[in-house]
């Protein structure tokens, strides 16, 4: 019975994902392309070989962290969709810090870079939470608009104050010292950001499910009046959870800069923050589910180049796919509690 | 039915109206005649059947039996449209204007026959001509959102007249107005009835408005017509007695002698009310241990705001609240240290997280209780499960399983669950708001027993209730709130329902 009660949270998103696949297949058929070929290519590019897994995993690392920036505020009933801003600013902070700590031993230097990224990301999204609590500003809109501001600030600094004069046609900060580059893990050819993402998911799960803070956040997210009557610190909870989510997104920015690009530049603005929203919703904001879902979507992102070349489809095809899945996931939210088989009453009667 | 009377007031009569909802009789054989050109007041407590009666008149409800006469002719109120065609209109307690449109736009779009393309110049000319016939003016070119409440209320009335309605029902028209605005609006309405242009039926619970403006009054209590007549021939005492009924027996429940020491004191407390227009001002209230202090009042007189102040949901703009002599900031730690608990009204809406399970909802108070009074960091799942099993058993909460969502429980069971959560363990002070609202008789009785039991063991209980019978049955001392202030205080021994009723109606 307990199994069946929990199954609802797996069956419905899985069904929605499959429905999304079906809808996208129809879209491909209308374009005169083969859905079979599409999914075969996704498999090939994303999951079939060690090389494709490396590609998939390195894309899923920032997705995991960006998804946490959605899932943590979601516990308080907030829909924060501006994780992209925290990733970009976190990356900038990490890149700039890296230039200042070049003389320190690698681990310490990287620690400082990661900390700088997390602090700036946390302040950025924490401000969204503070605006909500203190001024009643809608967090969805403010986080989205702040993401645009973050990207503009990023461009301003990378093309101005922090620009490496050597970066000619792609404005970048100065390249990081080799000792400050996060390397690949042993055995698996993917960088340590994957492990950091997995650890962050486990930490968040513990915070949400095993601590009184997580429980208080759920009460406030479900009924803020009840939380206030109980005297729970709703304001600090909102600001704390949004800031923590922003810190994880900032950490994603650090890994992108240190492990992938080697400096802060325009490649950082890759839309991971937005795909992270889809990951979090598919995972029902459950941190443990975020990791596998991020790998799945990381695989789709990794396959976009191959699909473009082989099927003669535009780059944006994967975005169409993601958009379709997202809409069906949002629709599926209305299904919870509608199936008698998933309710305790059904099992009590038997 | 003859054709509709083009101008002037009409007579409306309800004959032997009965309305049943299942087993519940909301309206019991009520007959009421509102003569053409009269200003008729309909008095009654919350739930007396006033709204049901006017909804039957307006065709929103189909009366179980009884009939309606308009100008002496039988009228079938099959739906609200039928009522409108006969010239019956209603002004609701809350505004139904579109805030972003101007007064003129609101008037024109309210018509049933507006064309798809509106010739604003012609409409405007017609409107100006129409306004010439009105006894008062309203700003037609201003967006409604920028109007004062009194102007909006006048516009609502003008809208009904513009639609050609000659019989108006006003549902507590002054509840959102300041006293000066109320006098102005009602003065105009009375002038129009005197001029024979309209007939008015006004729902109210304010005696002052009845005596100052109405010609006739009808009083309902528990769905029955219990009195009425010409204003001036019936005294305020008679109205009050009819409205409140005979004094209920002061409880036979066993009241133990208790030691009374001050627990909660409010001094000069000030806050803005929910409309943002008026202030709540409570000069001095002291709640003692071992007593139930009842706060009576008609809904909308500041009791809801008082509850919000005490639960920390509404900010104080002045004054101070002390708990056991120490300043009280309404935090969880303070409430826990002083063993203060809350029972807000409508528990599912105000005290539960509807999508969380019964077990989790039962844990709201204990989940962060650590050893030695410190708050715990780790959630103890087993303790939460044990707590749930114990409370479900002790308070007889009927649920399919502790894992069921609390929203799937019946109202009585939700109330029992919340009662269990808040009344378990030692309770020194309890703040309760309308605890029996919407519950059946046996649940009500069980909850009242619990409150008396807690009082007898020395708990200080502040009972905010709109049900005067409940206040009379449970309280040791009664305060009346009216217009955001405490207007009257009496010990239960000398409490008198008629007198309380007058104070509740703002007629002290």
List keywords for this structure.
heterodimer, A: 350 residues, B: 508 residues, alpha/beta, Rossmann fold, six-stranded mixed beta sheet, 32% helix
Your description of this structure?
The complex is a heterodimer of chains A (350) and B (508). By secondary structure, chain A is mainly alpha-helical. Chain A is built from 15 helices and no strands. Chain A is globular. Chain B folds into three domains: 12-95 and 165-243, Rossmann fold; 258-339 and 427-508, Rossmann fold; 352-425, no CATH class. Chain B is built from 17 helices and 20 strands. Chain B has 508 residues and is α/β, with parallel strands linked by helices. The chains are: A mainly alpha (350), B alpha/beta (508). Chain A binds chain B through residues 2, 5, 209-216, 218-219, 222-223, 225-233, 337, 343-345, 347-348, and chain B through 311-313, 330-335, 342, 344, 349-356, 360, 363-365, 367-368, 375-379, 400-401, 403-405, 408. Chain B: It is an enzyme of class 3 (hydrolase). Chain B: Keywords: ATP-binding, Hydrolase, Nucleotide-binding. Chain B: Residues 10-247, 264-508 form the ABC transporter domain. Chain B: Pfam families: ABC_tran (PF00005).
């Amino acid at each position: 019975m307990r199994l069946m009660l929990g199954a609802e949270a797996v069956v419905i998103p899985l069904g929605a994902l499959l429905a999304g696949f079906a809808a996208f297949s129809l879209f491909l058929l209308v374009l005169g392309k083969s859905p079979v070929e599409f999914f075969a290519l996704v498999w090939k590019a994303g999951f079939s070989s060690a090389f494709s897994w490396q590609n998939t995993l390195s894309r899923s690392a920032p997705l995991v962290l960006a998804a946490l920036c959605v899932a943590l505020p979601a516990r308080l009933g907030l829909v924060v969709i501006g994780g992209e801003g925290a990733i970009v600013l976190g990356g900038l902070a990490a890149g700039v810090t890296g230039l200042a700590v070049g003389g320190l031993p690698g681990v310490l230097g990287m620690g400082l870079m990661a900390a700088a990224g997390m602090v700036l990301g946390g302040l950025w999204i924490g401000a969204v939470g503070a605006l909500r609590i203190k001024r009643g500003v809608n967090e969805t809109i403010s986080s989205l608009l702040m993401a645009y501001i973050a990207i503009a600030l990023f461009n301003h600094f990378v093309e101005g104050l922090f620009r490496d004069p050597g970066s000619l046609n792609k404005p970048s900060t100065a390249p990081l010292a080799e000792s400050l580059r996060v390397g690949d893990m042993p055995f698996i050819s993917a960088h340590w950001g994957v492990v950091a993402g997995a650890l962050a998911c486990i930490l968040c799960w513990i915070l949400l499910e095993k601590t009184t803070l997580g429980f208080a956040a759920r009460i406030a997210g479900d009924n803020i009046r009840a939380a206030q009557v109980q005297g729970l610190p709703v304001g600090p909870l909102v600001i704390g959870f949004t800031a923590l989510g922003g810190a994880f997104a900032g950490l994603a920015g650090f890994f992108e800069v240190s492990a992938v690009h080697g400096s802060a530049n325009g490649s950082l603005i890759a839309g991971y923050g937005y795909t992270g929203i889809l990951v979090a919703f598919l995972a029902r904001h459950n941190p443990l589910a975020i990791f596998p879902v991020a790998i799945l979507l990381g695989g789709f992102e990794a396959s976009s180049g191959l699909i473009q070349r082989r099927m003669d489809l535009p780059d944006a095809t994967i975005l169409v796919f993601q958009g379709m899945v997202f809409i069906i996931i949002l629709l599926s939210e209305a299904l919870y509690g509608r199936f008698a088989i998933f309710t305790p009453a059904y099992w009590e009667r038997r | 039915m003859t054709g509709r009377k083009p101008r002037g007031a009409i007579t409306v009569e309800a004959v032997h109206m009965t309305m049943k909802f299942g087993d519940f009789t909301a309206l019991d054989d009520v007959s009421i005649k509102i003569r053409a050109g009269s200003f008729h007041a309909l008095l009654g407590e919350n739930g007396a059947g006033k709204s049901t009666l006017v909804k039957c008149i307006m065709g929103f409800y189909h009366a179980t039996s009884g009939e309606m006469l308009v100008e002496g002719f039988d009228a079938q109120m099959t739906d609200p449209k039928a009522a409108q065609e006969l010239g019956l209109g209603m002004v609701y307690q809350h505004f139904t204007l579109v805030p972003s449109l101007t007064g003129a736009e609101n008037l024109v779009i309210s018509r049933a026959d507006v064309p798809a393309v509106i010739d604003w110049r012609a409409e405007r000319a017609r409107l100006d001509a129409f306004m010439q016939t009105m006894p008062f003016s309203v700003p037609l070119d201003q967006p409604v959102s920028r109007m004062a409440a009194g102007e909006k209320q006048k516009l609502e009335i003008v809208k009904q007249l513009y639609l050609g309605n000659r019989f108006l029902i006003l549902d507590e028209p002054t509840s959102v107005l300041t006293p000066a605005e109320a006098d102005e609006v009602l003065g105009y309405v009375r002038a129009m009835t005197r001029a024979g242009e309209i007939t008015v039926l006004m729902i109210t619970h304010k005696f002052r408005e009845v005596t100052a403006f109405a010609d006739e009054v009808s009083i309902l209590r528990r769905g029955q017509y219990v009195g009425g007549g010409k204003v001036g021939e019936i005294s305020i005492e008679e109205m009050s007695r009819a409205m409140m009924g005979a004094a209920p027996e002061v409880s036979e429940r066993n009241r133990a002698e208790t030691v009374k020491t001050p627990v909660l004191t409010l001094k000069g407390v000030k806050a803005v009310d929910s409309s943002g227009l008026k202030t709540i001002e409570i000069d001095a209230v002291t709640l003692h241990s071992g007593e139930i202090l009842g706060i009576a009042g008609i809904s909308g007189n500041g009791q809801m705001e008082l509850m919000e102040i005490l639960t920390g949901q509404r900010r104080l703009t002045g004054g101070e609240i002390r708990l056991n002599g120490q300043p009280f900031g309404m935090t969880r730690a303070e409430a826990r240290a002083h063993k203060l608990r809350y029972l807000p009204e409508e528990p599912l809406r105000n005290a539960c997280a509807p999508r969380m399970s019964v077990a989790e909802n039962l844990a709201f108070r204990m989940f962060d209780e650590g050893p030695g009074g410190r708050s715990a960091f780790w959630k103890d799942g087993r303790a939460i499960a044990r707590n749930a099993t114990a409370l479900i058993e002790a308070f007889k909460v009927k649920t399919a399983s502790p894992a069921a969502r609390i929203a799937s429980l019946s109202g009585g069971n939700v109330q029992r669950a919340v009662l269990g959560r808040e009344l378990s363990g030692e309770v020194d002070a309890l703040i309760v708001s309308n605890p029996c609202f919407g519950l059946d008789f046996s649940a009500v009785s069980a909850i009242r027993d619990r409150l008396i039991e807690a009082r007898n063991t020395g708990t200080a209980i502040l009972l905010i209730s709109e049900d005067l019978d409940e206040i009379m049955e449970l309280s040791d001392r009664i305060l009346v709130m009216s217009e955001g202030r405490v207007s009257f205080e009496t010990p239960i021994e000398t409490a008198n329902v008629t007198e309380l009723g007058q104070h509740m109606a703002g007629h002290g």
